[in-house]
Amino acid sequence: MAERKQREQPKKSMPLYGRIFIALGVGIAFGYILNAIGGTHQPVINNHILPFLQFLGDFFIKLIKMVVVPLVFFCIVDAALSLGDINKLKSVGVTTIIWFLATGMISAMIGLFWVNLIQPGKGLQLGTVGSGVKTKALPGMYQTILDFIPANPFESLTSGSMMQIIVFSLFIGFAIISLGEKAEPLGKIFSMLSMVMFKIVDYVIAIIPVGVFGLMSTTMTKYGTAIFGPVLKFILTDYLACLSTTFGIYTLLLIFIGRVNVFTFWKKAFASWLVAFSTCTSSAALPVAMDIAPNKMGAPKDISSFILPLGCTAQMNGTCAYFAVVILFAAQLYGVELSLPQQILLCVQATFLSVGCAATPQIGLVISLTLMTQMGLPLDGYSLVAGIYRIVDQIHTATNSVGDLVATVCISNLQNELDHEKFDDLTLLDQKDGAS
Question: Which residues of the chain register pLDDT less than 50?
Answer without folding.
Answer: 1, 5, 125-138, 434-436
